[in-house]
Amino acid sequence: MIGALVLGLIAIAQALIFPASVSRVLSAILLSLALFFANGRVGSLVGDQFTQVGMLAVLIPAIVTLLFHKRQQRHFVLLVTMLTLAGYLVAASRNLATLAISLESLALAAAAVAFYPGEREKMRVTATYLIFSVMAAVLLFMGLAFYFAGANTVSLVQFTQTPTAIVGLTFLLAAIMLKLAIFPMHAWAVDVYSLASTSAAIYLSTSVKAAAMLALGILLAGPLKFAYQAGYWQVIIPALVLVVCSIAAGAAGMARSKGVKRLLAFSSIAHAGFLSLVLATPGAFSAGVIAYYALVYSLSNTVAFSAPLLLKGEGEATLEELSLLYKRPLTALAVAIALISLLGLPPTAGFNAKLLALVSLFKSSAIPQWFLLATAIAAVVFTAATGYGYIKAIGYLAKKPEETPQPWPELELLMIIYAFMILLLYFYPLIPKINVF
Amino acid sequence: MAELGPAIWATIPIFVLGLYGVIARRNLIRIMLALEIVGAATVTILGAAAAANWQDMGEVLGLLALVAIGIEGAFLVALATLMNEVLGDTDVILFKERRRGEEE
Question: How far apart are the C-alpha atoms of A260 and A318, rounded to whole Å?
Answer without folding.
Answer: 6
